[in-house]
Amino acid sequence: MNIEFLGGAREIGRSAVLVDDSLLLDYGMATGNPPSFPVGNPDPDAVVVSHGHLDHVGAIPSLLSGDARPPIHWTPPTRDLTRVLAEDTLKLHGGSYDCPFTHTEIKRMSQVSETHAYRETFEAAGYEITFYDAGHIPGSAHVLIDDGDTRLLYTGDFHTEDTQLLSGTTARPDADIVITESTYSDVDHDPRSAVEERFAESVRTTIWEGGTVVVPAFAIGRTQEMLMVCEAHDLDCYVDGMGQKVTQIARQYPGFVRDADALQRAKSNARFVNGRDGQRRRIAEKNTVIVTTSGMLSGGPAMTYVPEIRANPTNKIAFTGYQVEGTPGRELLDSGRAEIDGRVMPVSAQVEAHDFSAHADRDGLFELLDSYRDAEILVNHGDRCEDFAEELRDEGFEASAPDLGDAVASRA
Question: Cα separation of 73 and 292, whole Å?
Answer without folding.
Answer: 31
